[in-house]
Amino acid sequence: MSADDDKKAAARRALEWVKPGMRLGLGTGSTAEKFVAALGDKVAQGLDVVCVPTSERTAAQAAALSIPLTTLEDTPQLDLTVDGADEVDGALRLIKGGGGALLREKIVAAASTSMLVIADGSKLVDRLGKFPLPVEVVPFGLGATRILVGRALSDCGIDGAPVILRTDTEGAPFVTDGGHYILDCACEAIPDAEALADALVAIPGVVEHGLFLGLCDTVVIGAGGETRVLTA
Ligand SMILES: O=C[C@H](O)[C@H](O)[C@H](O)COP(=O)(O)O
After folding, report:
1. Domains of the chain, with CATH numbers?
2. Which of 7, 69, 90, 122 suits 230 as a labelling partner, its CA being 20 to 30 A distant?
3. What is the 3-state composition of the chain as percent helix, strand, coil, each rounded to the nearest 5?
4. What is the distance in A from the centroid of ligand 1 to the CA of 33?
5. So where does substrate get bound (predicted)?
6. Active-site hit among 105, 136, 170, 208
7. pTM of the predicted model over 0.95
8. Angle, CA of 97, 81 and 11, to the nearest 5°
């Protein structure tokens, strides 16, 4: 069984949480993409749901599958968001944003009664931080914001972590759907995720960060052809 099979198994299992009439948030990334594909099959069979996508990429996929879409302006409260993650720890705290969609993902998750994460087994960690933490920042003042992000890391016991501007395949700064840049922080380990989250949001140029704390209540892990469910 490949990681791709495990992602697919978790994505299919997540359909068990989807009920007719639900307002859903649709995540972004290679795992969420498999859920959207599986949901598209159900919609084609008559399932009645309405969905808010967390990225232009997911919006395009869902539209191509004729999944009914809405916005948080028209539908400000959602029942369930299904999304992937870059890391999940034992307390169901997450690092997200590897695909650059963390801001919309967090807004959509926060608007949802429940957040279900789907992932292959490699995403489960004892301690958050091996995956570089994405921090979304406004382009104005980038140099100054980068120094303050580095200082916030040091203040939280993460010394000397490289804070790297994410670039696209052409070497230009990667631009998010919201028109922002991303700083990837190579923490290696995050001793106190809550303290770091507080320190990062206090920086004026920081729009959002990839620590999702207290948002996810259920995780479906695909591993070796099986799925298992973790709950908060
Ligand atoms: O910005 C991207 C998202 O947070 C993704 O959900 C996350 O990076 C996991 O992606 P994947 O399922 O491709 O590993």
Report:
1. 3-125+213-226 (3.40.50.1360), 133-207 (3.30.70.260)
2. 69
3. 30, 25, 40
4. 10
5. 28-31, 83-86, 96-99, 123
6. 105
7. yes
8. 85
